[in-house]
UniProtKB/TrEMBL annotation:
Pfam families (UniProt xref): AHSA1 (PF08327)
Domain Activator of Hsp90 ATPase homologue 1/2-like C-terminal: 52-155
Protein name: Activator of Hsp90 ATPase homolog 1-like protein
Organism expressing this protein natively: Actinoplanes philippinensis
Superkingdom of the organism of origin: Bacteria
Family in the record: Belongs to the AHA1 family.
Amino acid sequence: MSDNVRPLRRPPIRQSTLVRSGREHTFEVFVRDIGVWWPARPHSLGQERVVSVTVERELGGRVYETWADGSQVGWGEVIVWAPPERFGMTWTILPAVTEVELTFTALAPALTRVALEHRGWDRLTEEQLAGATSVSGGYEAGWKRILEIFVQHVEGV
């Protein structure tokens, strides 16, 4: 390795899973039904107050949770909108903005690989990173659980 090349200090979180469903359906369920399958407890800001999660289906659209009192609390903005292949958003829940991107790859007519990358961790201070990774096993465990729940929902629809 050259002296001028530095390894990434905080590599992206990468997760992937297989879904027994077609790519179009898998993508559609992710964005359209996110408020149905997303585990708001513990993976939201409002916890028990959350009544829905919404993705505005366009580049620049908002991603947000709605609380029982009607409040809308932002999670980020759609930065990649390429149905049914890719979806990306800023993740503004952390003290610094990071990005989450998913790719949906058709492996067979009824088999889709969903790959998630959560990047931008180098924007957080050491203290912020420690706080983000200490909760319930951190984002690595959180994304694993979220994808498992997503697969169960897609395959059950």
